[in-house]
Amino acid sequence: MDKGRKCRMEKGNFLEPCIPLSQSFAAALNVKAKGMCRNELTNVKTFERTCGFATLRSGDFEKEGVVLAFCPFCGKNIMPKHLKQEEEKKISQERKERSESIEI
Q1: Which residues pair with 9 in a beta bridge?
Q2: For residue 11, which phi and psi values (nearest 5 degrees)?
Q3: Other residues' Cβ atoms within 10 Å of the Cβ of residue 84
Q4: DSSP letter assigned to residue 6
Q5: Could you tell me which of 56, 49, 61, 50 has the C-alpha nearest to residue 21?
Q6: What does each C-alpha distance from 51 to 13, 60, 94, 102 come to in angstroms?
Q7: Cα separation of 57 and 66, whole Å?
Q8: Distance CA 84, CA 21 (A)
Q9: Among residues 42, 41, 52, 65, which one has the least CA distance to residue 16?
Q10: In this prediction, what percent of the chain has a pLDDT beyond 70?
């Protein structure tokens, strides 16, 4: 890995972290540890990796963690494609519900 490389998403869903982000994952190897964690989802039927992303566990979000949309070190967008699509659907639905409540 070269020193200037930034995070990137392989095939839209797999995180390839920059060096500082990668090093922050190494500090949190315990599954329940606070801090930065690297997560991967696997299809249990086919045993294929489907997604890789970064989470931050701290404060009110210590148990579940928060999926990071951007790398705190290099600033690149690191949100997996399918999570972006789910978030866009959720926002669209909330806007629709708000506009319907205004019309009534």
Answers
A1: 15
A2: 55, 25
A3: 15
A4: P
A5: 56
A6: 5, 25, 26, 38
A7: 7
A8: 21
A9: 52
A10: 88
